[in-house]
Model the fold of this input.
Amino acid sequence: LVHNPSQRSNDPCLNDIDNDGIDNFLDNCPNNSLIAKTDFRTFQQVDLDPVEASQADPIWVIKNGGAEITQTENSDPGLFFGNDVFGGVDFEGTFYIEDTRDDDYAGVVFSYQSNARFYMMQWKKRYQRYWLSSPFVAEGEPAITLKRVDSKTGPGDALRNALWHTGSIPDQTELLWTDPRNVGWEDNVAYRWQLIHRPQIGLIRLRVLKGATLVADSGNIFDNEIKGGRLGAFVFSQEDVIWSNLGYRCNDEVPQNVYDDLTADLQKKVDIDHSWNWW
Done:
């Protein structure tokens, strides 16, 4: 933060608190000099089934100055994530699948800490049993889900099947929420996701919209296991996926309607975000 011993009204910290050369109102993280805007051009990728060779590994293409990601292959499960690290965060974007033949998984990743520990949102088009039944049978439902991945094995066949399976798998994944409508994504339809994570109170909230129509709302979900990390995208056997108009910002406050749903003890730990413009 900018050194401001006088605290006078014309001091520089009023316009640029973290002294990164970006005015506060243009800065996605005005208190963090390492993050100023959404940019995934510097990234890493993780192949979650590095042994199985029946499918290709994902191929990620970055466009629009780091605000758009495309994955082109019918691939093994894989992750893409940027280098910026967050605690409390808002993460949004448009999710679009051009492929008209396949019906598998795509989603987003948040609080990524390692290839065995992260949160994810995933969505499948149709029900399907995974074609490899070892080390256990995995059944994927079309519903939008939120999961915590905390794998004791890391990448390999057990994590692969656990990611395909909608329910929880001991020592691999924990299902935090599933959309009760159990409806899959449609090809060539733009969906907007809006995700907030507030690790200081364990809050996760997801909304998905189709145009102005609300498709799904997780409500306030609480999980205190992972306290922050990186953001990115996820695919499993689904090609031609586009994540566009990506946006993230550091934020420990919550929208009014999210605040209203908190218990009194949690309300004491957070402030209301009055600048909210997309929730």
